[in-house]
Specification:
The chain has helices spanning 2-21, 48-61, 88-98, 122-158, 161-167, 171-196, 200-220, 222-237, 277-282, 308-321, 358-375, 398-422, 435-446, 449-452, and strands spanning 69-74, 77-84, 105-108, 111-112, 245-248, 251-258, 262-266, 272-276, 285-287, 293-303, 332-338, 342-352. By secondary structure, the protein is an alpha+beta fold. Helix 10 packs across helix 11 (358-375).
Length: 463
């Protein structure tokens, strides 16, 4: 017997650790037990209905919205009748009555009072709102004062023009920074003021509407916004200086000023030309003023029977002999085309625009090379057409007549050149005469509202 008892105890000892190691079975989820509905007593104390009705009347007397409510109680069934100012008050009255001890159920026959004299509606509601607004006026005045103070602080900070000019690279960007500061402080002051009077929801609605309107205006004023962004980029890049001679796509003139909306040019005819900055920013700009050295070129055609290489050398030497043509880079002559009756040679020469006018130098170089070629016997023919009508016209010496006329022409040219060499030169003046540049300087000196917003800054490097 003792053996069996010891074996049983051993088995129990071995089974206990195993049970601790094995996972326990998940506990069953207890189903929620619904509370039983309160039972209705089969008897009622004498005077219970009166006590219920009086209790509800006492509660409703403390609530102005339930002044016109009639209460009746019979066997624990409470009947509510009459009118209330708002629709929510109907459910509210039923909930209050149902919480009174001894009430079995509530028969709710309340209706909303829709007459003009009802409290919270019609003229009465308007009077209540007006009274509430009058009571709110001191707080509104304080909120407006806070808004004005914050806005004034923003305008004061934005008025430190010297500070923003020092921080920003140009006046246009400084103006934008000042405008952004004013906007942030004005909107921030408005948020604080509305929060003081508890109308932040109104601010959300206003900002939401302003966002929609802003998106619509952004699409409608896309070109204007693009123009202002281009103005900012041009003011930072500084692609030209005042009085620079530029070619913007196919628009040529001298730069008068760069404003926040357009680049103002004076054309070579003396007319004002306003180019939108968005167009200038995307355009191909040629600046003829940046490099003082500039090349001119022109084409001349010599007779196909003449030596084109000798004509090129003579023209190049003629250009090099002109006093206004630079030696470095040296003038050039290029044979570019063989035409029907001539060989086209392109002559190129460099000048210093600070000392020589480009138009005048080119106008002086063309006749000089032409006269030198003609004096050397090179022909500069026009297109020649040979017509043969019949066999008898072959006996007419057209070629002989043409050669004689050409020889007489060359002789007359040499005589003309000799007379010009003896007479004083009246067209050798090639000094710069920039009347358009003078007009631009006079225009800039006159100043005006646009001059105050000129975004060209001589102190910044040109791109």
């Amino acid at each position: 017997m003792m053996r069996w008892l010891a074996a049983l105890l051993l088995l129990i000892g071995l089974a206990a650790p195993a049970a601790a190691i094995l996972p326990s079975a998940p506990a069953e989820t207890a189903e929620p037990v619904s509370e039983p509905a309160p039972t209705i007593a089969d008897t009622q104390d004498e005077g219970a209905d009166n006590r219920i009705a009086e209790r509800i009347r006492g509660i409703f007397s403390e609530l102005p919205a339930f002044e016109a409510v009639q209460i009746q109680s019979n066997q624990g069934v409470v009947t509510l009748s009459g009118t209330v100012p708002k629709q929510d008050d109907i459910d509210r009255a039923e909930a209050i009555a149902g919480r009174v001890t001894g009430v079995v159920t509530v028969e709710n026959t309340l209706e909303r009072d829709v007459s003009l004299s009802a409290e919270g509606t019609g003229f009465s509601g308007l009077a209540d709102r007006w009274s509430e607004f009058v009571r709110l006026l001191p707080l509104v005045a304080a909120a407006l004062a806070v808004w004005a103070a914050i806005s004034a602080l923003g305008y004061l900070l934005a008025g430190f023009g010297a500070l923003w000019q020092r921080i920003a690279p140009n006046s246009f960007l400084a103006t934008l920074i000042a405008s952004a500061i004013r906007f942030v402080f004005v909107v921030g002051g408005l948020v604080v003021a509305l929060d003081m009077i508890g109308a932040t929801a109104l601010l959300g609605a206003v900002l939401g509407g302003a966002g929609v309107v802003g998106i619509a205006l952004g699409f409608a004023m896309r070109d204007t916004i693009e123009n202002y962004v281009a103005s900012l980029m041009l003011s930072l890049r500084q692609p030209f200086r005042a009085n620079d001679w530029v070619l913007i796509d196919d628009l040529e003139g001298r730069v008068i000023r760069l404003t926040s909306r357009a680049t103002v040019l004076m054309t070579l005819d003396g007319n004002h030309l306003r180019v939108p900055n968005a167009q200038v920013f995307k355009a191909v700009i040629t600046n003829f003023t940046r490099n003082p050295q500039r090349r001119f070129e022109f084409d001349l055609g010599v007779d196909a029977d003449d030596d084109a290489s000798a004509a090129s050398r003579l023209g190049r030497e003629t250009l090099a002999a002109l006093p206004f043509v630079l030696d470095d880079p040296a003038p050039e002559a290029r044979i570019i085309e063989v035409g029907d009756s001539n060989v086209v040679i392109r002559f190129l020469g460099w000048i210093d625009q600070c000392e020589t006018d480009w138009w005048k130098s080119q106008s002086r170089a063309i006749p000089s090379v032409k006269e030198a070629l003609e004096a050397a016997g090179f022909g500069l023919p026009e297109p020649i057409y040979r017509l043969r009508f019949d066999s008898r016209s072959a006996s007419v010496p057209f070629e002989t007549v043409g050669e004689a006329r050409a020889e007489r022409g060359r002789a007359e040219t040499r005589q003309t050149l000799a007379r010009q060499a003896e007479s004083p030169k009246t067209h050798d003046d090639v000094a710069p005469q920039d009347e358009i540049g003078g007009m631009v300087e006079a225009e800039r000196r006159r100043g005006g509202s646009e001059q105050d917003m000129d975004l060209l800054d001589d102190g910044r490097p040109v791109e």
